[in-house]
Amino acid sequence: MAKSAKFLVQVIIENKPYINDPEGETIHRDLVVKGGYAEVKSVRAAKMLKMTVSADSEKEAEKTVQKLCEELRIFNPVVSNCTITAQKAG
């Protein structure tokens, strides 16, 4: 069995595409467009969590965090998408 290593796991939680995103819309309208970047057509906001996890592999670290997010209701799967990626911590 491989020795446990530390992995940095990123969790990105964002509204599903068909769900309104008032924060993103406000950033787009009041900052981006008014700031002179009319070529930017939309902004979507998201939350990112970073966790350091001890595991034997990236896949195991991702599975641990996926289970944690589902069991502890870190996100609402009805309205949000959750993307989880792990990489070996430096």
Topology record:
Blueprint: E1 5-15, H1 22-33, E2 46-55, H2 58-71, E3 80-88
Antiparallel strand pairs: 1-2, 1-3
Q: Could you give a short description of this structure?
A:
By secondary structure, the protein is of the alpha+beta class.
Residue runs with pLDDT of under 50 for 5 or more positions:
none
Largest sheet: 3 strands, antiparallel
Average pLDDT number: 95
- Proportion of residues in extended strands: 25-35%
How many beta-strand segments? 3
The quaternary state of the protein chains shown equals single chain
Helix content: 25-40%
Q: Shape, please?
A: elongated
Order of helices and strands: EHEHE
Q: How far is the N terminus from the C terminus?
A: 21 Å
Secondary structure category: alpha+beta
Strand order of the largest sheet: 2-1-3
The radius of gyration over CA amounts to: 17 Å
Supply the number of helical segments: 2
